[in-house]
Amino acid sequence: MIDIEHVSKHYVVDGIAVPALSDVSLRVEQGEVFGIIGVSGAGKSTLVRTLNLLERPDSGRVLVDGSDITLFSKTQLRSYRRKTGMIFQHFNLIGAKTVAENVRFPLKLTGEYTTAEIEQRVDELLELVELSGHRDKYPAQLSGGQKQRVGIARALANRPKLLLCDEATSALDPQTTQSILHLLLDINRRFGLTIVLITHEMDVIRAVCDRVAVLDQGVLVEQGRVAEVLLHPQHALTRALVQESCPQGESAKISARLNLPGPLLRLTFLGAITHQPVLQRIAAAFALGFNIIEGVIGHIKETPYGQITVQVIGAVPDLARLEAAFGEHSVRCELVQP
Ligand SMILES: Nc1ncnc2c1ncn2[C@@H]1O[C@H](COP(=O)(O)OP(=O)(O)OP(=O)(O)O)[C@@H](O)[C@H]1O
Ligand SMILES: [Mg+2]
């Protein structure tokens, strides 16, 4: 649906060129939730803003359904932007307008709907974001989560095909973050809306994204399916971001402290196998024990996963056979320490 091709962008600050994006290429498929992660200043906002041309690339192309939006006329761009919603970290609501007026605003701007149509759509949208009882309140009278729900209702007003989310949950507490992410996923599924979401938190990526790209100082350093990137990060920054959300990697130290002999294996489970007694089966088959040193079990979107480091206790068999045995259960087995 969207192809970003070799996009570069710099800003000029005090006469000095500051690169923000360097030769970024990526593809977002229709209907998916695509995450872009990176630390502050990585260029995330700049990248997501090239998707509605709030920032114009210096070079490269942004193709949406095959058309290069950087070549759009004013009229084409206006109608494209109407079909591209955006929500922000600080909500960007109009403080002097009520909830209903904020949502009504983009509908009125089009000049295409009758008053009755507008009112019906506003009702529908407020119901969708569960704010029907707050329609006459002003933004200052709402919690952060409620403000973001207004932001979402407003972004969806003109039935966009694409929703851009710039750190939409960064100002919210963990529980409210979950409820907003839940709402975004629900909208993605119900309306088949494509979502591009930027964040500095791997937990957000894990909860809602199908694929992810990692941006480091304007350079796209890694991209792929969330499970693959999360469970087997390749780039140092990706590893650091994964580690931040889910600390692991102390197993060598822990096993030294325990002073136990035996190799350390890292086992990765993805899907239904996560909840099967694979360890027990393999322990029985090889007459071994496994000492779990550290690990994590959770969900990537709805898919269960686990990644644990175990120490092999007992007469250690040929490791290749052990690896193959885990492999037969679709469990990836890697030697961390011999
Ligand atoms: N309008 C601007 N004028 C000058 N420099 C800018 C402007 N916007 C961004 N930059 C610079 O471009 C780089 C990328 O900024 P960007 O806002 O895209 O990063 P970000 O990943 O969204 O960061 P954050 O997580 O803090 O929001 C940074 O070095 C930033 O200082
Ligand atoms: Mg930003």
TrEMBL record:
Transmembrane segments: none annotated. InterPro entries: AAA+_ATPase, ABC_transporter-like_ATP-bd, ABC_transporter-like_CS, ACT-like_dom_sf, MetN_ABC, MetN_ABC_transporter-like, NIL_domain, P-loop_NTPase. Residues 2-242 form the ABC transporter domain. SMART domains: AAA, NIL. It comes from the Bacteria. Keywords: Amino-acid transport, ATP-binding, Cell membrane, Membrane, Nucleotide-binding, Translocase, Transport. GO terms for molecular function: ATP binding; ATP hydrolysis activity. GO terms for biological process: amino acid transport. It holds the Pfam family ABC_tran. One of its GO terms (cellular component) is plasma membrane. The keyword ATP-binding applies. Part of the ABC transporter FtsEX involved in cellular division. Important for assembly or stability of the septal ring. Belongs to the ABC transporter superfamily. PANTHER family: AMINO ACID IMPORT ATP-BINDING PROTEIN, METHIONINE IMPORT ATP-BINDING PROTEIN METN. This is Cell division ATP-binding protein FtsE. It comes from Rhodocyclus tenuis.
